[in-house]
Amino acid sequence: MRYSFLKRQSLLLLILLTVVSVNVRAEADAAGEDDFPPPRQTDYKIQTPTYLSDYFTKSEKGCIATESDGFIRRWMLLEPISKPNRSNTVFTDSYINSVLDSVYFKGQFTDIPQNGSKVKAGSARLTWHALDSRLFNVKLYRFAAALKKPVYGVIFMAVTVIDCPDEIKNVRMSVGSNSASKWWLNGEETVILSGDRRMVADDCVSKRITLRKGRNIIWGAVINGPGMSDFCVRFLDENGNPVTNFTTCFE
Amino acid sequence: MIMKIRNIIYGTTVSFALVSSTNAYSQTGEPYIHDPSTIMECDGKYYTFGTGGGGLISEDGWSWQPGAVRPGGGAAPDAIKIGDRYLIAYSATGGGLGGGHAGKVLTMWNKTLDPSSPDFKFTEPIEVAHSLDDEDCDAIDAGLLLDPTTGRLWLSYGTYFGFIRLVELDPATGARVEGNEPIDIAIDCEATDLMYRDGWYYLLGTHGTCCDGPNSTYNIVVGRSRNVTGPYIDNIGRDMLQGGGKMLLSAGNRKTGPGHFGRYIEDDGVEKMSFHYEADFDRGGRSVLAVLPLLWENGWPVAGEPVKEGVYEIESQRHGYALELAVDFVRMPHKMFRFWEKAEAPVEPLKSQTLEDVIDTWPEGEINVRLGDYMFRPHQRWSVQPAPEYGGYLDAPYYKILIEGTNRALTATAEAEVTAAPEFTGAPEQLWRIEQLTDGTYRIMPKSVPGHESEQLVLVSVADSTPSLGRFDMNSDNSKWRFRDR
Questions:
Q1: Given Cys at both, which of A203, B162, B294, B355 links B273, Cβ 3.0 to 4.6 Å?
Q2: Are B480 and B443 spatial neighbours (Cβ–Cβ below 8 Å)?
């Protein structure tokens, strides 16, 4: 774990040197996709506009307990980063590793964002939103649509912090996502879901991992071309049962 | 003897030629379609409709041609027969993966599906469900179920974009039941269909990538519920509202992307599943209609397989005896060992008995057949070969069943018995319809029996050691067979 974190720090130095080029690449991608369909929910009338309150509540201060199904509902979500893709079929393992390991903004993978804090990804200033999902899954498409942000050709970043009263060994992080995604626990890569994915509960799980006593930080990055986008995350014990003895909070 | 050798050579040659045919199990003709509706039988012909209007017609279920007529265009229809009429549901949608998601599902009736019939006339389509732009549902991909326990008519629809929904229709009018509200029954699938069996409702859906030819990962999944309204749960207890679904069929046999399930019940214990493959590699990657046996194991549907070309023991499910020529059993010479003494000599494998070893002991003319202990001897080894040049039925071409290495053919007789004729002639009584039953065993039926053309007779075991022809009974092991490669 520590090795990995150090590795991440070293990696960051290298990444910081290349972050400008990464951002330039992101802009170039956008510029090179002139024929990509315009983002939904921004410039034409929608019959059924999305309201954030239909899918989320704003996170209150303090921690929330985990429900019996174990799905983590409290997340800090970043407004979508532009990453145009006409199809979800390009999400190969190497593509996902390349694109979702890339650093798009300062503090990515290292800083715990605050509700309303902003980051600069390329030329875009994006805001973090602290939200509790009303559903077991986190509807990223609806998150973006409600904020009148692009819903297609994007990367969503998600962060949350879970607090365990005791160390919990031999659990697995369980993820379903639409479309592809990658996940980290305490700086350690845990799960990758490549390919043109639909969100299925318990689609992929990590190897056996340990949840520390106290704070554990989860980062996730979900990429979407066209179509719906969402994810669900929980931890499963050795028997495949949901782990519920932790709380979720950003403090 | 010369004739016998010629038979051996001929049989071997035919066998080799057919092995090289890679697409013997695909519907023939022009079976090109996408999103096929459940196959309907109407006045002795089979029909299926697809996206974009139109559809396919088949005289025998094996060879398909364009010609079915469905007005309205749109996408992904389904069909069901209610009383003496056919109800077609289809969707008119303006969307796509990256487009709008406003859609409508419409229904219309016809007395016949035969476009040449004077009765062929569709009623005006009526809207039964819709989705608004950017709603959590795409109102396309209709699936119809007439609940056999209640007579109520249900429609499922939807795509990956949000929920799969269920509404109730009036089976008399095809219209939406007044006041009925949609029920969410699944997420993250499309091309749904519903079926009922033994107290369970089954929701079929498709996962994976559509419409990407050889790269399409489309696959058919299923969940089940005690109530038509759900919850539909998969084999590990996961709700389809959480993305669950037990795999029913994925790619294989040089075809990718099975999707758009439809169930066809042919007979008691004989069921088929129709669907499309996104890409048939042997047809340049085009989307084609496909039909497979539909099996049931532990309350779950399973995709069966037509018998593959090969050499088999044909085993009666009645007692386990094997179908064989009624010829002298030719003993194999062997060294006797004393069981209680340690073997000192090196082990030398025995050679299997060959056709050449025994064929001179066989009569040259017709040979009776019987059932006996399987000893993997030449008179028990049947070469089962697809014979697509003689047509077929819903999920396979007719087969010829020959003694391995010969042209000696299993043949139905005018006395409703079976024999082994010295030559395969292609006559209907030598062509066999081999269908996998819902329990995984097979029924073996001659295409036609001389003098019994109006009857459907199948190969049966009338005694442990005696085969004959008789009526099919799904509840009797006398009617069931296994093809064993051993």
A1: B294
A2: yes
Number of H helices, E strands in chain B: 2, 35
Where do the structural domains in chain B lie, given as residue ranges? Answer: 2-21+308-484, 30-303
B69 three-class SS: coil
Please name the residue of chain B whose CA is at the shortest distance from the CA of residue A200: B243
Contacts of A49 in chain B (CB under 8 A): 134
Residues of A in contact with B97 (CB under 8 A): 226-227
| Topology of the domain comprising B2-21+308-484 | Trefoil (Acidic Fibroblast Growth Factor, subunit A) (2.80.10)
Interface of A with B in 158-197 (CB under 8 A): 176, 178, 195-196
- Using an 8 Å CB-CB cutoff, list chain A residues near B135: 47-48
Q: Rounded to whole angstroms, what are the CA distances from B142 to B212, B260, B376, B449? A: 21, 10, 51, 41
Residues contacting residue B290 through CB under 8 Å, at least 6 positions apart: B26, B27, B31, B255, B258, B274, B275, B276, B277
Q: What is the pLDDT along chain A (251 residues), one digit of tens a residue?
A: 222 333 333 333 333 333 333 333 333 333 333 443 444 555 556 778 889 999 999 999 999 999 999 999 999 999 999 999 888 889 999 999 999 999 999 999 999 999 999 999 999 999 999 999 999 999 999 999 999 999 999 999 999 999 999 999 999 999 999 999 999 999 999 999 999 999 999 999 999 999 999 999 999 999 999 889 999 999 999 999 999 999 999 87
ipTM: 0.86
User: β-strand B63-68 against B28-29: which pairing, if any?
Assistant: parallel
DSSP-assigned beta bridge partners for residue B220: B206, B249
One DSSP character per residue, B315-358 reads: EETTT-PEEEE-----PPP-----TTS---SPP-PPPPP-HHHH
